[in-house]
Amino acid sequence: VFAGLPKEWESEGFDRVNMDLPGQQNELIRRVAAANPRTVVVLNAGSPLTMPWLDDVAAVVQAWYGGQEAGNAIADVLFGDAEPAGRLPTTFPRRLADNPAYLNYPGENGHVLYGEGLFVGYRYYDKKGIEPLFPFGFGLGYTDFEYGNLRLSADQLTPDDVLTLTVDVQNTGSRPGSDVVQVYVRDVESRLVRPEKELKAFAKVRLQPGETQTVRLSLDRQALAYYDPAVPGWVAEPGEFEVLVGRSAADIRLRERFRLLAGEANA
Q1: Which residue ranges form the domains of the chain, and what is each CATH number?
Q2: Burial letters for 34-67: b for 16+ Cβ neighbours within 10 Å, e otherwise?
Q3: Which of 66, 104, 161, 251 has the most CB atoms within 10 Å of its CB?
């Protein structure tokens, strides 16, 4: 079943008032799924949607707006000739009220207060302890992966050092596939209110069945810093930091800590 948002519902110059599929699309999906539980729903939309029928279907493909070759690409994915190797660049909430912009929209007199501040996207859901429908960075393919052996190049750094981390990723399934290793950082001892974690590095790796690769990523001072208007400038505070490696913002597989030593902290 193909469903989604036509240009009358999603385009430049206006906002959607809800996150539901328009018309009778939800009812259509429900009825088709009732007749065939192996139904796959393909969504053509550029933003998150509610999915009240999710537990009744076999799979969902978020196709976005793929352009003139979208039909061929979707067919390749559905028939198993290509892997759906993408990852979500946004969080899909379960309901409109869970969205960080819910309390601010539509504003008054043509003005909207962006009251979420730093806590946009997955940062908001972390702060509020809200479980999303699909988290930032989420995505399924036709194989499975295991992570292990996270190593940091040092347990103490000066502000001028670069931290190198390595992690082993193994394809434990029976088909070739790609995974996106996501590295988040948490400032354990910040004097200011900061997000629970922030994405600071990522890498995509393609593996054959049974293959293991060591993925290497780096974090510099800028990855540990925040902007302080009182300086003004970017500041990396000395103290303890935690590196979190996972497959999405809600699927953290490995953690390690290190300490940033005092020094010239402006990034």
Answers
A1: 2-128 (3.40.50.1700), 145-260 (2.60.40.10)
A2: eeeeebbbbbbbeebbbbebeeebeebbbbeeee
A3: 161
* Helix or strand run (H / E) with residue 27: helix 25-35
> Residue 85: left (phi > 0), alpha (psi -120 to 50), or beta?
alpha
190-244: pLDDT as tens digits:
888 999 999 999 999 999 999 999 999 999 989 999 988 888 999 999 999 999 9
pLDDT digits (tens, 9 = 90+) for 47-91: 999 999 999 999 999 999 999 999 999 999 999 999 999 999 999
What global pTM score does this model have?
0.93
How big is the chain, counted in residues? 267
Q: How far is CA 23 from CA 3, 5, 10, 42, in A?
A: 10, 10, 14, 16
